[in-house]
Design brief:
With 246 residues, this protein is an all-alpha fold. It contains 8 helices and no strands. The chain has one domain. The protein has helices at residues 17-49, 71-96, 102-121, 123-132, 146-159, 161-165, 169-200, 205-243. Helix 1 runs antiparallel to helix 2 (71-96), helix 1 (17-49) runs antiparallel to helix 8 and helix 2 (71-96) runs antiparallel to helix 3. The chain crosses the membrane at residues 21-43, 71-91, 103-123, 143-164, 171-196, 216-233. Keywords: Membrane, Transmembrane, Transmembrane helix.
Length: 246
Amino acid sequence: MSVRSTSIPRRDLPFTADMLVSWHRVFALSCVVSALLLCASFVQDVVLYSGTKAALSGKIWLLDVDSEESAFTWLSVIVTFSAAGLLFRAAGEASMRNGPFKWHWYFLAALFLLLSFDEFAGIHEKISAALSSRVHNTGLMYFAWAAPAGIISLVGLAAFVPFIRSFPQRLAVLLMISAGVFLSGAVGFEMIGGSVAEVEGVESFRYRILTNIEEGLEMAGVLIFVYVLLSCLEDTEITPRIQAIS
């Protein structure tokens, strides 16, 4: 066996090995920090809301996962934006190789870019408020946007089945898990939380706990997805090097 003298230009690869190591370290740090922030929010809500009256004057809004001004929301914006960046890199790689699913990659990249902006601007909350002002919603439909978003997500997920099946089995399973975890939080627990908010209000102890679970599931789903993306990009970095050996 001999090694060819020609080497693949590093600029043609989506990432170098060192860059991938750095991304994995940032990913691990994001997992740890998000877990710590979620725990801090949960503990604060238990302390403030488990009594007869919430002491909002002592609340640290930076630790409230349901606030747009919190550190957890800031991290969510960064993680979803990073996922969009990784998806654009993967889309570029698929386009360069004329892959059959290049437009699926680009669509997901645009979707995560929108999710990142939504985390920052709270678009879905504004849409829900607009819908609620026109249609009377109650129970699980109290947050009006959740049910339509869930239906659209399931239809989109079904349309992406061939794309998911193109992945190695382990990564395909992780993709399904990431989608399930994210949607269970963004849609499932959002709807349950809405039914509780209608009766008890958004400052009730049960609603606060449900909100922490919801936000935690959303973040976990995105982080699992980012891990899948890093694994895919790692394969595209390693495979050309293996092919260069004969």
